[in-house]
């Protein structure tokens, strides 16, 4: 049995972990769900309204928050550069377009994450005005960013030195006991999720792959057991997303090879994790390039095959 240890920034696509009873309502277009339900990343033409002047200190997670808007998303969005102090060129690019109305290309792991949702309903396609804060009420995040403009920023996917992650037992107990209500409108072609505030963003845990894998365009879905750092089993079956991002698409880890990623994972060493879901960062020992693993829990009503 191969056990992998990493740091997880926990999130769920549709059934979200919660630590509050305040109701949050999210309405998504069914066309968006259909397009992105089996994709681990999103490409966005991003208008940067406002951004952190400097990255968070490591004790607060080391991320840089970038608030803005993109037509591909249609929701208030916060994009985040992980370990941003190590990505000075990307930080400078963000500030060069901040507040100008100019756009930049952003690619990264997308997630629905209700930590800072506010009290108003989040309705995809509703009119958005420029944001004046780096943390506007939002549920949509690109976290972490994988590419900003022409440059990859995946080298920042390493453990956050100086940050204390959340304890796995408490976090996964919270995740597994939360509920969301999902309703669909055939006349509006939308799906509405009613849930509550999320928490436990970064969590350290171990995982053991234990199920079938589903290959998708930019990665694959796998099932895994979740263990705490003392090897106590917390969850028997958790769906995770493995993203083969631009930094790996020219390596031998190809989608066409039978079981290639399952075999390759046996040679992967988890260096860190971040989660649209739950995101983990691992590195291929042969190429020393990072691979992103995410946790995603999807409701069957939205899985139209």
| CATH class category label of the largest domain | Mainly Beta
The gross shape turns out to be: globular
Percent of residues in helical segments?
A: 10-25%
Contiguous uncertain segments of 5+ residues: 10-20, 245-291, 298-305
Count of distinct structural domains: 2
What integer value in Å does the Rg equal? 18 Å
- Please state the average pLDDT score: 76
What is the H/E string? EEHEEEHEEEEEHEEEEEHEEE
- How many angstroms does the end-to-end distance come to? 32 Å
DSSP E strands, number? 18
What structural class do the secondary elements suggest?
mainly beta
As an assembly, this protein is single chain
Shape-level CATH architecture of the largest domain: Beta Barrel
Largest sheet: 8 strands, mixed
Strand content: 35-45%
Q: Which fold does the CATH topology of the largest domain refer to?
A: OB fold (Dihydrolipoamide Acetyltransferase, E2P)
Helix count? 4
Can you put this structure into words, describing what you see?
The chain has 305 residues and is mainly β. It folds into 2 domains: 18-156, OB fold (Dihydrolipoamide Acetyltransferase, E2P) (Beta Barrel); 166-177 and 199-302, no CATH class. Helix content is 10%, strand content 43%. It contains 4 helices and 18 strands. Strands 1, 10, 13, 14, 15, 16, 17 and 18 form an 8-stranded mixed beta sheet that branches. Strands 3-4-5-8-6 form a 5-stranded mixed β-barrel. A hairpin with a 2-residue loop joins strand 13 and strand 14. The two termini are 32 Å apart. Mean pLDDT is 76; it is low at 10-20, 245-291 and 298-305.
């Amino acid at each position: 049995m191969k056990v992998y240890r990493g740091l997880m920034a926990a999130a769920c696509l549709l059934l979200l972990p919660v630590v509050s009873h305040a109701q949050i309502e999210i309405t998504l277009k069914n066309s968006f769900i259909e397009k992105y339900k089996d994709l681990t990343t999103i490409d966005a033409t991003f208008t940067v309204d406002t951004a952190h002047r400097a990255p968070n200190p490591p004790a607060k997670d080391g991320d840089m928050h970038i608030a803005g808007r993109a037509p591909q998303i249609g929701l208030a969005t916060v994009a985040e550069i992980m370990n941003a102090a190590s990505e000075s060129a990307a930080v400078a690019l963000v500030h060069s377009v901040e507040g100008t109305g100019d756009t930049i290309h952003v690619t990264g792991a997308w997630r629905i994450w209700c930590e800072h949702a506010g009290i108003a309903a989040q309705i995809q396609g509703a009119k958005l005005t420029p944001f004046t804060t780096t943390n506007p009420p939002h549920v949509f995040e690109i976290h972490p960013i994988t590419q900003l403009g022409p440059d990859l920023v995946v080298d920042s996917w390493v453990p956050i030195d100086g940050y204390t992650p959340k304890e796995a037992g408490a976090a996964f107990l919270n995740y597994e006991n939360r509920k969301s209500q999902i309703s669909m409108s055939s006349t509006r072609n939308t799906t509405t999720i009613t849930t509550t505030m999320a928490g436990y963003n970064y969590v350290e845990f171990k995982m053991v792959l234990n199920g079938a894998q589903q290959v998708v365009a930019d990665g694959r879905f796998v099932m895994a057991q979740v263990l705490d750092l003392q090897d106590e089993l917390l969850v028997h079956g958790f769906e995770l997303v493995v993203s083969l991002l631009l930094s790996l698409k020219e390596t031998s880890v190809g989608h066409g090879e039978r079981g290639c990623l399952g075999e390759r994972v046996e040679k992967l060493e988890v260096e860190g994790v971040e989660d649209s879901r739950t995101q983990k960062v691992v590195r291929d020992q042969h190429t020393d390039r990072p691979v992103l693993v995410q946790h995603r829990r999807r409701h069957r009503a939205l899985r139209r095959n």
